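Friendly challenge for the regulars: who can give me the structure tokens for this chain first? No prize, just bragging rights.
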Amino acid sequence: MQNTFSIGGVHPNDYKQYSAHKAIIEVPLPKTAIIPIVQHIGAPAEVVVEKGQKVKVGDLLAKANGFVSANVHSSVSGTVAKIDTILDAWGLKMPAIFIDVEGDEWNESIDRSATVISECNLDSKQIIDKITQAGIVGLGGACFPTHVKLMPPPDKKAEVLVVNGVECEPYLTCDHQLMLEHGEEIMVGIKILMKALNINKAIIGIEKNKPDAIAKMQELAQKVDGVEVRALKLKYPQGGEKQLIDACIGRQVPSGALPIEVGAVVDNVATIFAVYEAVQKNKPLISRVVTITGKSVQKPGNYHVRFGTPLNELIELAGGVPADTGKIIGGGPMMGRAMSNINMPSNKRVSGLLFLQESESRRIAPQECIRCAKCLDACPMGLEPYLLAKFSESQMWDKMEQHDIMDCIECGCCQFTCPSYRPLLDYVRFGKFKVGGIIRARQTKK
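First reply, four minutes later:
Bragging rights claimed.
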């Protein structure tokens, strides 16, 4: 069996050394928590609290508004100060609930003990209901509501759970450290998801630059029937759903299709840890581990942060913004985006903050395309990035759709490998946004 995906990919330096093996640090509570209402793909949640209302940790703040939506819970205890708009990391307005923090009182239904509960006596429907109620979404980046993945159409059947422990994005180490510190809980979460899906096979994919995580999860997997750990070669973007499925089970998801088409369901290890906490501890998704990193960061590491904590407070805990910072990236350097606002709150989407030095964040002036075809070789989806970028530049949206732009996973391999320094990802990402809007408008008219 192969141990990497078969189409495209690149090999950037992983730069994991700055935060790897740093024990997870608990971030202090903020004075005011600002909880965004939209922290997921799909319909925005509907607010169910009002100004002046007292809330505890774990209380429901906003209810999912549709099948593809997710509940939002309070990560703190205190009083709802207001419901207002804030600016996100890129300066766009988003609705949020402001809570004045008063102590740390938790909802009585949540089990806060450190004891690992291994046995789950719930049936598939009860498990999925708990995951739905807890507001769990994919923490690998997409923030797709997890319960939707667990409820495939009647004509589709899950055969294998593919667990994403790859963390292929350079610099980021939060998933790696989570496996080291909470491997037991993740393994229970895997068993829970297998039960929810009514399957008896799971494969955990981990890249070989994490030998301690591989060893840890292999040791745990030996005690669980049907669970296997697959050590994968280093290649970006192996953490993409379709690439990971190819690497782990040798199946290729067709263009425009979802993983369930080939019998696979993919979940990230952080998501699975959240599933464990929801099902076994009654704890909704109110926090996550975030990597703070960069070559000049004073205290790079992995920080456990409650949602709603302003990012600037998290940054101060890591030593503040380095003087030589050119850009602050939300996420990793390949798929992340430069932030214009670090006062925004942490939320389900934020997996990392990367401080790039001025010298490494400057763009080189683009030159003419030399038709070298390196972007074609690098594209893990088998697309033609140079052509898609040209269509986008010329606003030829119909041509972009015809050339499968919606298959693009925005991984940045094309731009990374371009010897002419052309902003291929920028053009392709913008074009995908425009074409996606056209497709949605067309579907609405039907």
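The mean pLDDT is 95. The longest helix spans residues 174-197. Your move, everyone else.
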